Amino acid sequence: xxxxxxxxxxxxxxxxxxxxxxxxxxxxxxxxxxxxxxxxxxxxxxxxxxxxxxxxxxxxxxxxxxxxxxxxxxxxxxxxxxxxxxxxxxxxxxxxxxxxxxxxxxxxxxxxxxxxxxxxxxxxxxxxxxxxxxxxxxxxxxxxxxxxxxxxxxxxxxxxxxxxxxxxxxxxxxxxxxxxxxxxxxxxxxxxxxxxxxxxxxxxxxxxxxxxxxxxxxxxxxxxxxxxxxxxxxxxxxxxxxxxxxxxxxxxxxxxxxxxxxxxxxxxxxxxxxxxxxxxxxxxxxxxxxxxxxxxxxxxxxxxxxxxxxxxxxxxxxxxxxxxxxxxxxxxxxxxxxxxxxxxxxxxxxxxxxxxxxxxxxxxxxxxxxxxxxxxx
Length: 377
Known about the structure:
This protein has 12 helices and 11 strands. It has helices at residues 13-19, 30-33, 42-48, 50-65, 82-122, 127-148, 176-182, 196-203, 219-234, 292-300, 323-338, 356-376; strands at residues 2-3, 9-10, 151-156, 166-170, 188-192, 212-214, 241-243, 254-255, 268-276, 305-311, 341-342.
């Protein structure tokens, strides 16, 4: 240590060397400097870039969750000229149309119950007559439901006929899909069991047309349902079987993976494509955020439910196809006709978060695609 001008202490060069970091300690050894770097691997890319891993996970989650999000229309009452028109529309929809629709639905239920109960109780010994009358009454109450929404439904293609060994499959947006299809032709549907008044209707009235219910949380139910499906599809006098192979409601913009159960029955598959017009109301039912009662109120306070239904050409399993490939081919047909975007997701993931292994596989596939694009460039 030496003293400088003004009595300040100036450290010596040896002391400066002690405080100076040794850069050589942070450099690789001489033998490794010239060591050739091997081919960049996926694990190395993910290790050196945790941000890329997080980004891949975010993209995967976003592409999945967007299938189950309702997209509210953009507000158009944003200035002083449009707001009075919007307010007049609110008054008409809630104070005029809604009460009229409630009256229509109430009258429909009165007519339906006054006919269905005697038919169900008094015609038990006449199975064929009882079935025919119950089918007609179920179609009638579904027509009243559609009228309560001021439904404008355009049906394209031949009306479904009752034949053995055929199954109808359709994309799924809401439970009103069944009502819209049922008013045209009586179907026996397979659907998730619901609580409340909807569950009461399922266990009483809808079972009269041969509907089959399941609970996705119980694994044993799947075997029972599969057995019932096979028995129902073989019956000559049974209503046509209607299945929503996505297994959950999707927002009518995307189509998720079809379950293969309907395609393993050895039956002719009759695709049905359903497309709703969102200008008047979004028909998507998010059952996790909204009860079906509130969903119906939303429909009944809208201007109208506008929908197109296409009965498409029947399809059969090809000799070189697996049931999974058959399901994907039918999904392609429905998606093209309804203008839906296909995504490689299982709809049941809506009810449970994807496992870490599943997310990791998706992240790896995303990173691999990035690497391929980089190598091509």
